[in-house]
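Changelog note: in this version the structure field was regenerated for every chain. One regenerated record is shown below for reference.
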Amino acid sequence: MRQCWLATAAVFIFLAAPALAIQEPTVTFIPSQISINSSFLMIADPYATSTESVNVKWVVFGIENGYGSFPKVGSKWVCYFSNTDPESTCGPNVFPAPSYGTPYEMQVNATNQFGSTESTMLNVNVGGIRMTNQITVVGSNVYISAWVSGAVVGGVAYKVYNAETIEEVLGKSGTMQYNPNIAGFNTSISLPKGDYYIAFTANTADDFSGGVSKVQVGSGGGTGTSDIKADDIVYSPVIYPGQELSLREVFRITNTGSENLSGISISVPPELSSYISIVPQQTSLGPNESTYMSATIKNILYSTNITTYATLTAGTKELRIPVDLRITVIGQPPESTCSGKADKSLCLGGICCSELCIAGGECCTDSDCSSGQTCSNYKCSATTAGECAGKQDNSVCTGGICCSELCIAGGECCTDYDCSSGQTCSYNYKCEVQANECAGRSDTSSCTGGICCSELCIAGGECCTDSDCSSGKVCSSSSICETPSETPQGGGFDIITIALIGGGVAAAAAVGFFLFKKFRSKGEGEGEEGEEEEFSEEDFY
């Protein structure tokens, strides 16, 4: 009897032991801090043994529909919350507003097949700073950008996690610095083929932000014929309402076969054609050749996801290309024109100045800049004008020369007199060669304010020789067609006085050549008598 009791007790202990294996589950958030509307991961560990079947559930008190179960991913129980990703495993972000010092109360319960339950209570703080992320994958290169709204932060930290193991990828973390060219934060990393979560966090003195984005690396190729390869069209753009955005050199098509491909075209489902179009930049490819696809997003007024397939055809060959666009729409659409707009109004690509849209502009006048700065080329920069006060033109100042008591960065001249012969001082204070617009052009060609004669621009000119005038008129010394008066002795030349001042010798030579040509043409028109006519000293007095 005693042996029987011991055997029964041993069986009882064997069956009861697993029921006591689970413990109070620990809960980890990725990222460690989350914010309103952000995507995030919640991982529970109930410390279950390999023989246990465990159900892990969560509930947020005081929130309607604030409950659910943790799906098991590998050896972990993982909830993926996202307002934008239709593949989220636990639905949208469950927290409706920032906690602002009063954390949300959450309970996580783990129950095994023996009915044993262990629970953990959590206080969850939710930040109020919104963050928008954009991730572009080209091959193994991952380009990351982030924009923070409603707060000024010093940087955005990021960490990369393997989507299968939910383990941090070592060496793939850091802090993104502000890039004024995109008015946000950015960086780039390389990752091997696989699925990942990239977690972002940012902080101010009294608030914070955090969220994750899911990314797929090296999955290009679509499905279909093996003679064509194409990148998956995966992109997360940030646009204004209704803004048209074209991605021109991101996604490739490659002919991996040994034959030429022709008639390449790409179509999207008809119901999406008013929102997205995809066009190959080349319609034919030789073996091993590739080209880009131009993907254009348009008519999007609200944040949305487009998850579909595009169909690439080349003759009888066909390829289905996965399309996954996570489109975030922010703000009001800026005007593409500045007509009637005040200075510094936003326009596509910059600001309005004098009703012109200046791409990348920061300022229109000095008053738009901070103290100690001036507006130069529509950018605010530190002024060094004070050091030229009382100094002569062409005096050296920081980075340039003084002109009219202003320091001209990179300046070479203030007036034409500061430049070499044949050069003028341009509007940007640089010595430049003055172009001869009549060089190489035939007589009577139009030039600025007149016509060309002997490769010189004659202001107000009508003719170069008598043959350019109508019957009964001759070409005067001022290149004007006039009715001739009685021809004075000396061959009909007007009396010309040339004042040789400074460099006037060259001018005199040019005028002399012009008069000689005119005289010769007149002589040709008068026949043999004209050829016999000679100059005499009286002709010039």
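Spot check on this record: The chain has four domains: 21-127, 130-217, 223-329, 435-487+494-501+508-528. Residues 435-487+494-501+508-528 form one domain.
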